[in-house]
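Why this split exists: single-chain examples teach little about how molecules sit against one another. For that reason, every record in the complexes split bundles all components of an assembly together and asks for one structure covering all of them. Below is a record exactly as it appears in the raw files.
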Amino acid sequence: MAFYILKRLLLFIPTLLGITLITFILMKSLPGDPVTAMVGERASPETIVRIRSELGLDKPLPVQYGSYLKRIVTGELGRSVFTNRKIADDLIQKFPNTVKLALAAMLFASFLGIGMGVFAAVKRNTNWDRLVTLISVGGISIPVFWLGLALMLIFAFYLQWLPPSGMGNGSLVYLIMPAVTLGTFSLSYIARVTRSSMLESLSQPYVAAARAKGLSESKVVLKHALKNSLIPVVTLIGLDLGSYLNGAVLTETIFGWDGLGRYALEGIKQRDYPVIMGVVLFGAVIFVTMNLLVDISYHFLDPRVRVKEEA
Amino acid sequence: MLNTLSLKDLTGNTPALIAAIVLALLVLVATVGPSLVSYGPDMVDLDNLKQPPSKVHLLGTDSIGRDILSRVVSGSRISLSVGIFASALSLCIGIFFGLVAGYFGGRTDTFLSQVFDVFLAFPSLLLAIGISAVMTPGLFSAMLAITLVGWAGFARLVRGITLSLKEQTYVEASKALGATPARILYKHILPNALPLLLVAGSLRVGGFILLEAALSFLGLGVQPPTPTWGSMISLNRSYINTAPWMVIFPGLAISITVISFNILGDFLRDKLDPRMQV
């Protein structure tokens, strides 16, 4: 079992390297010459040559990649061109906000999504089922930024129940709309997957056996069928959480949430390339790590997977 | 398998039928719409700023007096064409590499699979942002970004199908008869993969359209003054509480388009993919 984890970790490393390589290539494709950006275009040729060699930009590309890797591994992501703050510091400061939003969105999406999925499965082929299916198809079709604006319009401006934007020193009301906006997409997927997974479980022999034993319907559904249906749902939750953690760019922008996503957007607007690349790299690493955790947890959650591996 | 699918199947399923009609209308609007609307998308009318929907301007006007209906109609061209072309392009690239990886196996497969994994390791929006940011924003950068985001998913799918199909007896027979790999791939494996690819493609188009909308919302897609649904929402965002129609209609257009693609994709999957039932 530990061997399996080790194996997955080993496979993880080339992927991580690949991510850094792509980010490096992207950085090297950026328009503009960093040296002239630093010293201005009227600097003397000697200054330009000197700065270029100081920054190591005259070395061959593989060597530059190597030093890039070395810097990244020590957490040195450079400085923002605009604020001149260390990007790593900015990331550390803003990441917890994104985590808060991501967790809230995920809780909303999981509880409601699983509930809806179970409900639809139990009420299969009735109008309730069709309603849930319609809502979930709608949920994955509506653009996140539009949903956020629509919610803001209704709940902040017309009904005035919730504050329109900002983080409000951590008070929970500010979290509600962003979390709902962010979570709706996942909610829809989770509802769909839960429904189909439940339908499959409910058709299994052990369910008929449980009913024959005389167990109440709710016990059959909730205690037995649901537990077994949750495996693909857990995978989905893990993957979506990974994608939320790298900053819900759109949601954070609309609601003025100071997290990774908004940081990335400001970097884009100001063409602050070190920031953009830093967020892309960080986000990808987080995403891949979550995928790895999901893979490993799959191994623990589904005994059939374990047996297949040993075979 | 495709010949078992007929128009009759479509009429039996109401949501899918409505979705198909909506999409057909959308294509119609995108092709001939811009020439039929009474106002050009760029016609500024400074006497009629931020007007709510009325008989003259059916969807209202925006902050510099442009007719929203004609802008939404013009925007449909971009959203549809980017969505469809990017899907088609990433499908083609994905098919090519997926076939190669699945069929030739060995080190080619290991290497290519690793490449797929790396591309799939990036969350879509972030990768699209990264790619668009290094180029001049515009139609080309958006299409390239979306294609690069999408190809690896298709490639992995095709690789899986190829792996399972290449063990079939008819492939072995072809090989014994001296068929080249290209011929086998083209004549035997690809046709059998098509239904699943059609399903996967149609389910992805919606996502690509949303991605294009997100990119133009962020200012990384087609640039103003050309109207795109995403940029219309972002440009008029600050007026949301005074003139919400400027934001509502483009978003509604996006949602309706994507929902139709998704419903149609679901329908195709129910009919063409025996493994999956939702």
